[in-house]
Amino acid sequence: MEKMWKGRSEVATDKLADDFNSSIGFDCKLYKQDIEGSVAHAKMLAGCGILTADECAVLVEGLQGILSDIEAGKLAFDPTAEDIHMFVEAVLTERVGDVGKKLHTARSRNDQVATDLRLYLRDESENIVALIRKLLAAIVEQANKTKTYIVPGYTHLQRAQPILFAHHLLAYAMMFIRDAGRINDAVRRMNVSPLGSCALAGTTYDTDRMYTAKLLGFDGYTLNSIDGVSDRDFCVELLSALSLVMTHLSRFAEEIILWSSWEFGFVELDDAYTTGSSIMPQKKNSDMAELVRGKTGRVYGDLIAMLTVLKGLPLAYNKDMQEDKECVFDAFETVAKCLGVFAPMVATMKANKDNMYRAASKGFINATDLADYLVGKGEPFRSAYKVSGKIVAYCIANDKVLEELSLDEFRSFDPLFDEDVYGEISLAACVQKRTSAGGTGIKSVEKQIKFVEEFIK
Fold first, then answer.
1. How far apart are CA 68 and CA 338, in angstroms?
2. Distance CA 329, CA 143 (A)
3. What is the pLDDT of residues 240-278, one digit of tens each?
4. Residue 83 gets which letter from DSSP?
5. Residue 22, C-beta contacts closer than 8 angstroms, at least 6 positions apart
6. pLDDT at 5
7. Where are the beta strands (DSSP E) in 26-166?
8. pLDDT by residue (tens digit) across 36-80?
């Protein structure tokens, strides 16, 4: 395919340099957005009298034909084309003649690619948020099933206090809601049109940038033409948001891996989301969760790569910025795949109520409630805390749990203990008493479920 910039140089580009320079192998993903932007640009040129209505009609029909043929598999991308923009323009000119050469009036590939990328990322961000909502629906489904299941809550990976399993799950729901909010916020800042910035300085033609912005669903246009073509902070912001999605998926995956082990036995993953061993027939491996955990580093790498590309670039456009696309393409595809498998994995896992309760019965996770009991009897908290610590040490030495101590044993540590202590330190009571806003009590958990359900709607 002949280079559009051939006039400046008559010497053919070296084949290796040509291949190195070409981006058609990956930016072909932008074909739909490139054609959409070109249609809007043609309509604007006609509206401003730069093209005739007939010329515009020919261009729009030709562009729509290219789009249809690509999507129908009738038109393959030419690997000799430098990029998707040159490919579309060359095919258009071949089909409609010299009028196709007028399409690039009052624009540059610099503002064209910046526009295409924003349109693409806007679409992909919408898809990611939709996938997050599906994961939230799976979490809510599990929370509703397990909102009475008592499980040990952990700090430092040590059993700490009894909580409802649903409360633990809903912590992740809140994280994913914020993730969706971050993506939507980034899209709002990104949703301005660079089209019309041209190479960097704008154009001498009397164009209407707001018209193309509205046609393409943008909220406005970039107010500085240099900024419009030379920054990719919107890529960084979205990659950062996606990295946090992966952080939360990875933490959740790690817990699912632990919970599904024999040592915990809190959940069992559906066979559809596990694998076996080639030599150990008893194995049921949580490979999907492990892969999500592993792919987190990949998305982090995309973010760091994008930051590194931008960090030393002078204004305005530089060829380095061609490296933006593979980073964001990879990150969005990776996150979409991870969310796509994670939601059904969560939805189909089975919680083991008995194993959870057995684990909660050990580790003295009601010791705080024992101290609170004494505070309720008038003991200062620090004194009550010390008494409770001594009782725990006594239980460990005598291989007992708190509920197994006799009243006389309790009173040997503090005379304020009475028969009602047993009801106060039962696991069910420990959970039910936590009625503070956002706590693990059933009413709080039900409010959280309702909040997440409202977000999903």
1. 31
2. 33
3. 999 999 999 999 999 999 999 999 999 999 999 998 877
4. S
5. 79, 81, 82, 83
6. 46
7. 150-155, 158-164
8. 999 999 999 999 999 999 999 999 999 999 999 999 999 999 999
Using DSSP's 3-state secondary structure scheme, residue 173 falls into helix
Amino acid identity of residue 57, one-letter, is A
Cis peptide before 316 (omega within 30 of 0): yes
**Residues 432-440: contacts with CB within 8 Å, 24+ apart?**
433/369, 439/167, 440/153, 440/162, 440/163, 440/164, 440/167
**Residue 208: what residue type?**
D
Rounded CA separation 136/176 (Å):
7
Ranges of H-type helices in 260-323: 287-310
* Burial classification of residue 125, based on how many CB atoms lie within 10 Å of its CB (0-12 exposed, 13-18 middle, 19 or more buried): buried
- Give the pLDDT confidence of 79-93 residue by residue, as tens digits: 999 999 999 999 999
User: Of residues 407 and 17, which shows the higher confidence score?
Assistant: 407
Residue scoring higher pLDDT (434 or 184):
184
Q: Which residues contact 151 (CB under 8 A, 6 or more apart)?
A: 162, 163, 164, 165, 168, 266, 356, 357, 359, 360
Backbone φ, ψ for residue 364 (5° rounding): 55, 40
Please check the confidence at residue 443 and state whether its pLDDT lies above 70: yes
- From first CA to last CA, the distance across the chain in angstroms is 50
The larger pLDDT score, comparing residue 290 to residue 10, is at 290
A 10 A CB-CB count for 358 gives 12
Residues 6 or more apart in contact with residue 140 via CB below 8 angstroms? 173, 449, 452, 453, 456
CA distance 81 to 4: 10
pLDDT for the residue numbered 10: 59
Active site positions, annotated: 156, 277
Q: For helices 84-96 and 109-145, what crossing angle results, to 10°? A: 120
Phi, psi angle pair for 164, to nearest 5°: -85, 140
The closest of 127, 144, 129 to 456, measured between CA atoms, is 129
Is the separation of the CB atoms in 77 and 29 below 8 Å?
no
Token pair recorded at residue 163: 């909580």
> What value does the mean pLDDT take over residues 303-312?
96
Q: Please, which residues bridge with residue 154 across strands? A: 159
Query: What is the structure's pLDDT at 365?
Result: 87
User: What pLDDT shows up at residue 297?
Assistant: 98
